[in-house]
TrEMBL record:
This is 3-guanidinopropionate transporter. The lineage of its organism: Bacteria, Bacillati, Actinomycetota, Actinomycetes, Micrococcales. It is a multi-pass membrane protein. Keywords: Membrane, Transmembrane, Transmembrane helix, Transport. Pfam families: SSF. It comes from Mobilicoccus caccae.
Amino acid sequence: MGSIHTIDYVVIGLYVLAMLGIGIVATFFAKERDDYLLAGRRLKFPLFFGCMAAMAVGGAVTVGGAQRGYQVGIAGVWVGGSLGLGLIVLGVLISSKLAKLRALSINEVIERNYGAGARLLGAVLTIIYTVSLTVVQVIAMGSILSLIFPNLTLTLAMVISGGVVVFYTFLGGMWAVTMTDIVQFVIKTLGIMILVPIFLLTNDSFGGLNGLVERLPASHWDPWSLGFSGTLYWILLYVPGLVIGQDIWQRMFTARNEKIARTGTILAGVYSMLYGLAAVLLGMAVLAVGAKPDVPGETFALGVELFLPPGIAGLLLAAALAAAMSVASGTILACSTVIYNDIYLRLVRGERTSGVEPAADDRVALGTSAIEREVHSADEHRVTRSDVWINRGIALVIGLLVIGLSVVIEDIFKALDLAYAFLSGCVFVPVIAAFFLRRVSPKAGLLALVLSAIGVAGSMIFGETGQAVAMFGEEAGADWVIGGNYPIMVGMAIGIVVYTLFTVIDPNKTVANTEIDEAAVDTLPPADGETHLEDRRA
């Protein structure tokens, strides 16, 4: 990145300072638990859509998308395309139910249907997913920053960029994530989705779109060049994971009502597809002019240097940082929420759920006086505010742990594969079953989680130790390692078989529980043009 202009450094510097400033300002908004974890559950459509779109596309789609475009061509769009498809499926199938739940984590749904043991195991698997996904983003941020500032080692660049995200997430929680995500959404949309295609298609070095077509091999214009197995891999990796991802669910819980949640999520899926295509085209353009990045991960930054003028190049690099920061802040917060809600509250405090105050008429029926209610409310207020600092502490520890793991791993796609393999392979089947079956078996849910987790981990060990290659040969053995199809497929197959079998034979099935907590309806912000539940019943 030797030709980066001074103005680009200024643009990037201003962006980083803005993120830090927003984190400080957001501290004044994050006064209670729901403010810190869920931005008060009251985002309207523009904010919700921008934040969901920013949350969806991170370093894997931006830096990884350009890398895939360079290596395999237009088929690299399956990275962002599968992610977008997952959001669309989520929006169409279960977004309305999710928006109504007074939940903090996916594992509350697991406990409602499969018991406390299943919730704890689900929490462990979710922590693996969120930590691994955050590592992906920190590695991406470090690779970009180290190219912008050649004197920085990759390790130091990851520490600095990761530290910025940890700082503003620690201070402001979901309000900081929301405000930074909106800034990042604007930068990413302007930089990646608008300016990249414009500058590529008007560039004289390869003659625009026609020149791009002529200079690249035909295989680079084949969306199915990865073959059935390669294409299926990205669909299996992203679609189930996006439908049940804690980071995505937590963002869903911030919507003001279910209509906003559904529409915003579906449109964010479309946005992800278009964004992924723009990143892939940049990588293809790098190959078209014959440029060769030192390592594949440098493709995005090299493309920015080659095709964009000073100032705009800085904006694009800031956009790439923004993409990774959006996801990193969201996944750090998601991981800390799971630890707080599913481990701390459940095991330390012994609370069955996230703790919702009974509805007003229930309190009256119990004979609670106005004075007693005021005292209880004051106690709740103090607990909620102290919990903000508990959540901040957890977020800080998770952030520092992630930075350390990023320094050790230094591989975007390996961390990404690890993240989604456990989520898609283990958690997807029992959670989705709870939304679509009328009756569920707690035993089936718990066993499906346990055995599918063993299946995913065992498949990875089988591949990584070389036993798969020794048994099946080099080509087939590659499907068993981290990043292969088989760990996810084995996990999902075990989950489906075990869940189906024990659901059929279990005589003690219970009614599936994914309904809104009626006691908490009065605390939900009303939809536009609506009143609270008690007024609608009158």
